[in-house]
Protein: Leucine Rich repeat protein
Organism: Musca domestica
Amino acid sequence: MTALPNEEQHLEEMARDVLSSDGGHITFFDLSWEDVIVPKILSNFTLKELFTFRCCSQATKRLVELALEKLVEIDFAGNNSVNIEHTFKVLGENCKRLENLQLARCNWMTDDLLLPILARNKHLKIVNLNECVNITPLALQPIIIECKDLRVLKLSKCQWLTTGAVDALTLHQSNLEEFDISHCAAIGERCLIIFFRKLNKLT
């Protein structure tokens, strides 16, 4: 019979401790970060809003880092704005659950920027590197070998693409459903015949 009053008293004491810890006020940061702030509030922010919020304080920086860890999609296609490399570097340091990476026509993209984010996101399903002219086949290595959930890979107008990279893709990837290598002059007919014979899921 005394269990309920004792529990209520304990909850009251906990609430009193929280209220007294900040002069009698509960702040935004007293809310549960994992259960409330990140999934219920920050999940509605655009990427630009997250980065603006990130600059407010050390606490907001940590909050945004938690939110970035849970991102499943990055769409920078055609985005060549000033300082975009810095933004992408921050994403590369924090994102861990990406499934969709859209980087078509990103002229600033290099191996050094791309490799860290690929190393932390091995469950990518869609990767679009169409017209990314400043990366090399080295950047494809983690995609080919480690991204076993890959379904869509777009490399249109990537003149750096080699037959060796496509051969490696044929060896390691068997579940691709869409593969775009249009306007890649270095890819020969023999390479394509072998590739399409093995990957019969392509549409």
User: Anything to note?
Assistant: The chain has two domains: 32-70, 72-202. Residues 3-20 form the longest helix (18 residues). The chain is about 45% helix and 5% strand. The domain at 72-202 is CATH 3.80.10.10 (Leucine-rich repeat, LRR (right-handed beta-alpha superhelix)).
